[in-house]
Amino acid sequence: MAVIAQKCPEIQVTVVDLNEARIQAWNDEDAKNIPIYEPGLSDVVAEARNRNLFFSTDVEKAIDEAEMIFISVNTPTKTYGAGKGMAADLKFIELCARQIAKVSKSDKIVVEKSTLPVRTAEAIKSILNNTGNGVNFQILSNPEFLAEGTAVQDLLNPDRILIGGDPSPEGKEAVEALVEIYSNWVDSSKILTTNLWSSELSKLTANAFLAQRVSSVNAISELCEKTGADVNEVAKAIGMDSRIGSKFLKASVGFGGSCFQKDILNLVYIAKSYGLHEVADYWEQVIIMNDHQKKRFADKIVSTLYNTVSGKKIAFLGWAFKKDTNDTRESAAIYVADDLINEQASLSVFDPKVSESQILSDLNYLNSRAASENRSQVSVLENPYDACKEAHAIAVLTEWDEFKTYDWEKIYNQMQKPAFVFDGRNVLDGKKLTEIGFIYNGIGL
Ligand code: UDX
What we know:
The protein is of the alpha/beta class. Helix content is 45%, strand content 13%. The chain has 18 helices and 13 strands. It has a 6-stranded parallel β-sheet, with helices on both faces. The protein has a 3-stranded parallel β-sheet with strand order 3-4-5, sandwiched between helices. The chain is globular.
């Protein structure tokens, strides 16, 4: 919304949320303090805020005044009832639709921005069209393809914009209204319009294909470790095939983030609910492989450290699910940490952007043990040198660029010997570290 506001000064954009503290943070006088860290975002907000970009808790007023409403609430995986652990929980979407239905006095276009299971638009439509107040609603699907850490750039230069709508004349008119907004900065050749269901399914499919590439290369990484092949060389060799392409082939400790796992589980659930068991199993394997990759990383640390990490200190560099974000949702670090704490390791964590309270709350959320135990096993440090001091091993969980620039001699001198490094992102210079004296382990090397 901030980018739309920046690019379309004639459109008034109001972002509303029930959470007062959150809205207050978005209104913080210093735009550097907005609650999401994303390169370039503070500047965009600083430029548009209080010009044509507003943050407010007055939800009803904003609904009443809007001609177009983007629903951007979260759709977490259900933790109860039918589809538990797999289906998307649409409770928040439904509450939004009901509130829009209740408040609206004039015709509106409602845009699904959240990633939703196929045919959600039908449910929204049914709620909106049964208010009996004569207001007409058009529902559009406009999934977001930005990736965190590069969100502003992805929005400014998108590969494509996807807009799904009803094929009726009114539906087409609504699609056109949204096309017009994006046309302010996106070339028309990159704006795709489809029917609603194709648009909804394309978002889940795009994420499933991307995650599948990571799981595929991660599956090969394990084979590389056994055979003496080097996964970086293999990835380069296959990536130069223009039919395959070079992106999304970096072997890692496993993908994380708020989308991949959730969206694939969603796809699996939809397939199952139509009785398509082979389709469901095919996609579920992407998740199974990812869980295996995280587990195998933790197992390797334990087996390399002479089969026990009990009472040993292991330093974690990175906690976020990838670099340039403070988002930790589904980060591989959480699961690796959980396994190592089960093995009675003490962890000392450093991440340039993630806070101590976030790290502890991520671990507590797993419910593996008492919060007090997590607190006693995990310390969070303000600088990487303190985190690594006296450690038996260092595990790199996020590919932050700054890790490459550390004084590795100094880190080595302050560690227990032999000093192990487990590079879950293959970001460090293994050759240089080996020369210093480290025992270096990467993924698929
Ligand atoms: C993803 C999609 O890319 C985006 O289009 C969608 O809108 C939201 O979900 P995001 O979750 O922000 O975006 O991150 P992404 O860059 O896709 O990375 C996901 C995970 O895969 C990260 O944990 C990342 O580290 C990992 N990854 C990615 C790899 O392990 N190897 C790779 O080669 C690429």
